[in-house]
Amino acid sequence: MTQIMNMEPMIDRSVVEESKNLSFTFNSLNAFSEDAVVRCWFDTVSIFGVELGKDLFALEGDQARSECNSPTAAAVLSAFDMAPPHETGSVMFEIHVALTAANKNALKTAIANVRKGKATDNTIVFGTPNESQELKNDGKWSFFFAPKQGLTLIPCDPRTVDLEIGNGELLGGTTADAPYTTITGFNFVIDGTTWKEVAIDVGHDSSSDKGLYATNNVSAAG
Question: Cα–Cα distance between 129 and 44 in angstroms, integer?
Answer without folding.
Answer: 9
